[in-house]
Write a structure and sequence with these properties.
homotetramer, 352 residues, alpha/beta, four-stranded antiparallel sheet
Chain lengths: 352, 352, 352, 352
């Protein structure tokens, strides 16, 4: 019922190899949407891997209607990269490439005209095949590891209709990146905070590379509907997993999958807070020192409220006060209390 | 009333310099004990720096009876060493030297005979002077940075009678390393767990290098009393500071200082759990994977109890169970859920 | 005659500050070009700093005609960032930002129309002032350290006419990045290999951010001439300085400065090899292992020639052969013989 | 003729495993000495791995008299640990343990009395068996990865008579660590510089842990001869391999193996320089800056000679001069020109 595959992704200097494990559940209904779910592409962001383990157990007991592909620990290189106790897996340590900015938009020289006459069913499958060809061509050229890993994950996901990329974010409240056209559906995830992206956004991330070709297709062919959806879901703090939290994370994902008819059952819609991505603001530390955070992830602040105090011992010990420049909701906090000037202290969903 | 000094500790490749800040409060009573308190020699372990900031405020309002010297952020090199969000300051990144194992025992070729005839007052001051001479001689030779930093901190502390080295320990319950002869006094810190060291222990740590010369003196001269005391105090989790926790940490330190007549007031004795250091056991991870911790720092477990599950995706997702080999109290946990085989998963005060 | 300034660029967690040192030589002729020279923005690439030290000595003895500003060790953060013996300064260790990709193009909302009526002299000074305004505005917002450092260096350089950014490149032959319109002048540097960039190239590097506004100005105003020039000069291997090599590096730079009438004397033109940047190809390692390099930086190879052997111990020891896919000249080699699959093994100026 | 084994040494967080490869050549003569050769336990020190590959080819063509076991890339964890282009494999990145200081002396509670009556042949095999028992017992306890790796390598080598541990040393001249009793034999390696260790030295390194039990045995049993030998051989610069250098390195090792009758043929004795280890002195950088090395590895200097200049830009560019405190031969140099105060600049075989 479930097929398990090991895909090699890198041979190391020692000759040993790194792999990803792929779990494939075959759906019982031919027309149900196909789902692709991966986790931990940034190495340290592992809560999604535990959620996938629990989803695996669920699907064994409750076979899905649509095909479901699960790829936990999607970046073994990043996961294994330790510096001290912590995991330094956000970017390639040789070239600085962010592992979630190297995905390749497979529409270069796409022949849109040729797609115009096709029936809906043929259109979608043809489009997927054309993209797969471009991915494989790129994959066979001489490329860097971050690019090769991205292409491997893309070839695993390109045939799906729904794509969930499970991340975490330092110390944070749960939130989700949502293409604007999928806002209503995203509410079913039970994630309290939504960051809304325009449908033409593309910066090389998995969610974007998944939906952007389809929004381009809709533009080119004047389609009224966009059949595919993808989301980056931020499941709280990185560097840790929590079994009780994973139950609640799983419940939200199952609710969405029910809503999309990938699995059976009734879904319930929630009312998340949402905020356009251009109002999602970063506050950088203005001074170096030790940060005592006063604000809390997910708790609303008013402009001028104290967000943090930064302790310095330049002369007498003093506390530099960081005040909120906005009304809004702080979502992501720097992982540490030890901060140089110019690090990313906090991100806020602002009312600006 | 308080004197502030900047002491340079290292010039960097860029030509810029790192400093430590030293705060000196003069005591009002000549015979009251002198106290030396430092924090954050391991870089990431910063809660003690916040406690020192609060102690500074207290002492400005409440001048001490004995001299008090405060050295927050005692290792600016370790504090500034970032890898990703976190602080990689436990050891020198060029040679691997642990910053709390490089202290130098200043008794080599000590002329014990010469000390035997002295009166108590002269004995103590002469012994301190002899040690200072040896420290300065070593400090003037060609030495590595970790050794130079250790010697700088030793020359700042050698004249004191009481020495508190404020650390933190990954994710942990508060605990304190105590030389056995100072066990009764240590109870005044209100730290719930004591790890008891024999009085001849020496592995290069600050607390040991401070008390060991005095226990040697007592041995050599058959003294019935050891006048000096030193402790490593582990103030919970590293990488973070907490203002509310700092109030409680400060209260414990003030209680001890009152008991030792460094500051005025009544002290109250507590009843900590204690455990000999040779029963303080480490559990290493037997497999690599994602760790879901079940036990909690400071909460007693029985032999055979489940401590953690380690999630692996080798075939179907499975959970490797880590069970306690001891009755005891887990105190320190690995900072991350991402673990290779053979990392230090947990430390337990065992009943063995 | 020379003015020396320290500019603070970052306060660290410890409270200490990092600085850059700026040396200003005042030129004797009002209309001679102004030159800006910086080095080591990637931390490990320090040969240029030694060249600047030697240029400083030269200019003290031989006062220039035009103003010369020197900024050695332009990135103290990157310079100080050690991991083991080596210097990990190519990118920010918290966010992965490449320090030479964060420069800010100061022409957003530029009012080109307003510039059209101006005389040449006024045009140039007005354009510089407009750009400076935009830089300062950006610099006063809440920004990350890599962005702040880039803006600091831009405000120091924006008033100049010629900009030399001194880099090094792993293990490499000397080479230079040249905007196509400045090809003839660049030949005076005596750098054997030129990589030619189109005049509209912009990826956030210092040379590009310096020339691109001026090529835009020329486009907008139909100017026949582009007055400013900028170059990235790669002075061989990183992580090391060589005094004898620095003499020869200095001679080339002085030859260019004579040609541009910044200093007095006759200049001599050289005949470098040049290659368009789109023919500058990267070869990634196809396997992990230990690399025995056969090709040498700066020595021509033919398609099919053996470039390197990669030693593996998977079964019997074997040597994987890396052959050149191009006729051309290998220029930059990976710094180490220890290579994972997918690292950048070599860059070649190809004849493709 | 040659047996090849893969030995797993660590499972990673991702579930992938690291291995070492073991090559066993069976000797044709029962009484010929057994040899164990390993390389690259410090990760970056890989020249010995290439030498082992060449030795493998030699032994396939020229079967040995004694058993030969080869273990290239003996520390895959250290080899794979990259930070930027370079390899950060000298110590464990979680706890700072130096991979060549964790070997375990397997003589605790050794019953020396029991060994006294035995014949020579029985004595040696019994002693090896007793040590193997202690190693296996330790290996089966809960231990850290560096300890587990050390024990794995020890169990692979304990049955041998000769042990060669192939290292490299930053930027350096070839040199060799030699227990004093094996000085004459060591001369056959054709390594120009010998560092002589007393026979009771033990700091946890492979060579020491191999010979120390045998020198203890000789002490306990008043044996006139020590049958086993071990050496740390430093084959020049780390981070690189060179095929031509490997030929010459191999020739030296074969010459020693001929001398010891492990392989057939005549050996030729050389005349290396030797120096007691307590005269092997380290010079630490007294200031931070950019180092222009003047001395060269392996070239004699006189006391007062200029060893290096350190470039600083504190005010005007200046060069801090490092002069030799000794007559002697600089052997190992810091790998980089970028130096903080207090790094290990140079090591000198001094005439002191």
């Amino acid at each position: 019922m479930v097929e398990i595959k090991k895909v090699p992704v890198r041979t190391l200097a020692s000759g040993d190899s790194l792999h990803i494990t792929v779990y494939d559940f075959k759906g019982s209904q031919k027309n149900a949407p196909k789902v692709y779910i991966q986790s931990a592409t940034h190495g340290s962001e592992v809560q999604g891997s535990l959620v996938i383990a629990k989803l695996f157990e669920f699907l064994k007991e409750n076979p899905p209607l649509g095909d479901v592909r699960l790829v936990p620990n999607a970046n073994p290189m990043g996961l294994n990269q330790k510096a001290g106790d912590y995991t330094f897996g956000r970017f390639d340590l040789t070239n600085g490439d962010n592992y979630n900015r190297r995905y390749f938009l497979p529409v270069e020289n796409m022949n849109w005209e040729q797609l115009k006459g096709l029936t809906e069913a043929t259109l979608y499958s043809t489009f997927k095949e054309e993209m797969m060809k471009k991915l494989l061509e790129k994959k066979n050229s001489s490329i860097s590891f971050p690019d090769a890993l991205a292409l491997t994950l893309q070839t695993l996901s390109i045939d799906s209709d729904l794509c969930l990329d499970l991340h975490c974010a330092n110390r944070s409240a749960h939130h989700i990146y949502v293409p604007e056209y999928a806002k209503e559906d995203a509410a079913y995830f039970s994630i309290p905070f939504q960051i809304i992206m325009p449908k033409d956004k593309f910066g090389g991330a998995m969610d974007e590379v998944f939906f952007r070709p389809w929004t381009m297709l809709a533009e080119q062919l004047n389609l009224s509907q966009i059949k595919t959806q993808s989301f980056t879901i931020e499941l709280g703090n990185h560097e840790s997993i929590s079994s009780s939290q994973a139950e609640s994370d799983l419940a939200g994902i199952l609710n969405y999958l029910r809503h999309k008819k990938v699995i059976q059952g009734e879904a319930e819609k929630k009312n998340p807070v949402n905020c356009p991505i251009n109002q999602y603001m970063t506050i950088y530390s203005a001074v170096g020192g030790l940060v005592d955070y006063v604000a809390q992830p997910g708790k609303r602040v008013k402009k001028g409220d104290l967000l943090a105090r930064i302790l310095r011992f330049s002369d007498e010990p003093d506390f530099f006060e960081v005040k909120s420049p906005y009304d809004g909701i702080p979502i992501v906090f720097y992982s540490s209390s030890i901060a140089h000037e110019g690090i990313e202290l906090m991100r806020i969903l602002s009312d600006v």
